[in-house]
Amino acid sequence: MQLKSPLLSLILASVAAIGTAGPLDKTECIAAAKPGGGFDLTCKLVQSALMQGKYIADPMRISYMPGGIGAVAYNTIIAQRPAEANTLVAYSGGSLLNIAQGKFGRYNENDVRWVSAVGSDFGAVIVAENSPFKTLKDLIAAVKTDPTKVVFGAGGSIGSQDWMKAALTARAAGLNPKSMRFVAFEGGGEAITALQGGHVQVYSGDASEAEEQIKGGAKIRLLAVMSDKRLEGSLASIPTAKEQGMDVEWPIVRGFYVGPKVSDADYKVWVDTFNKMMATPEFNKLRGERGLFKFAMTGAELDAYVKKQVTAYRGMAAEFGLNVAK
Questions:
Q1: Residues forming a β-bridge with 119
Q2: Average pLDDT score over residue span 210-226
């Protein structure tokens, strides 16, 4: 009978472990912008939920890949890391809007595998704590008086989700969106820093992102939320844009995709894990703590939803005279 040496046993065990490594081993979440914005928030939600629910053994690593509000991450995953089953990438409705306008280069909504939507957010009109604007009507009145005096900041350039929120608000107020002064930033965290520094007067961002920043000490206020009704929790006192005479709604879905060459089996592991995790009260609690609202969708259903949304965004982009991807 041949006995294995302890060293050989260790080597064989290591090889076996490598061979059986799955999508839930040594996980990574890519936030496709700088820290502090909505992608970061989305990654931190799933990082906490996977660990607390014991779906993963090691803490999920969060890495930041800014550039084009998701474009760099999208292109990197598809072209360079297409088969990484343990790597999730955060996306938002803004990502889908950019895809609709061809801002992700040669790739479109059919080039990744959409895993899960984990929550929804809503657009918000945000100002610095010491801003003279107390209501959305104050802001619109100032823009009407002199559009050059009010600078809008946004995560992303003209045609981005944040720009679209500002443009829809301007249009609802009878203003020409193209008359707005607009400064683009690489993500919401950077835009909120500029807002507090007085470099811009308004930021058309996201409600949950702003709520997290306020919890962290940011000196900002919300003038309006772009939801169909008032939000719950700490933002319950913030009126909707509709309440203030502007018929603007902007729901924002948040979730994850994986590369196009991730196997069906590994993709199914993620879909099943998200389905199980999102059905728990613990996940609902974590989602609520981050200011996100219930929106749970996975797999084939999510894939169909994403493609429908991108088609709708193509129509919206065309309305504003923006580039539309073929």
A1: 254
A2: 93
Helix (H, G, I), strand (E, B) or coil at 245: coil
Whether residue 60 contacts residue 46, with contact meaning beta carbons closer than 8 Å, is answered with yes
From first CA to last CA, the distance across the chain in angstroms is 68
For residue 178, CA distances in Å to 58, 91, 126, 258, 320 come to 49, 27, 20, 36, 9
Tokens representing residue 95 in the block: 């990502």
Query: Which is it for strands 113-128 and 297-298: parallel, antiparallel or unpaired?
Result: antiparallel
**Each residue of 135-154: pLDDT tens digit?**
999 999 999 998 888 999 98
For the beta carbon of residue 236, count every other beta carbon within 10 angstroms: 9
Long-range contact list for 278-284, CB < 8 A, 24+ apart?
278/116, 278/118, 280/53, 282/49, 282/52, 282/53, 283/49, 283/53
Q: Are the beta carbons of 181 and 147 closer than 8 angstroms?
A: yes
158 to each of 69, 101, 178, 243, how far by Cα in Å?
Answer: 12, 11, 10, 27
pLDDT score, position 6: 56
Is residue 3 helix, strand or coil? coil
Helices (H), 71-135: 71-79, 93-100
C-beta separation of 39 from 92 below 8 A: yes
- Both tokens of 106, joined, read 């040669």
Distances (CA, A) of 117 to 25, 183, 225, 271, 292: 21, 29, 21, 10, 11
Report residue 224 as tokens.
């309006």
- 167: Cβ–Cβ under 8 A, 6 or more apart, which residues? 177, 180, 320
- pTM, entire model: 0.79
Q: Quick one: average pLDDT of 277-285?
A: 97
Arithmetic mean of pLDDT, 232-259: 93
For 3-50, the pLDDT digits (tens) are 455 555 554 444 444 445 689 999 999 999 989 888 999 999 999 999
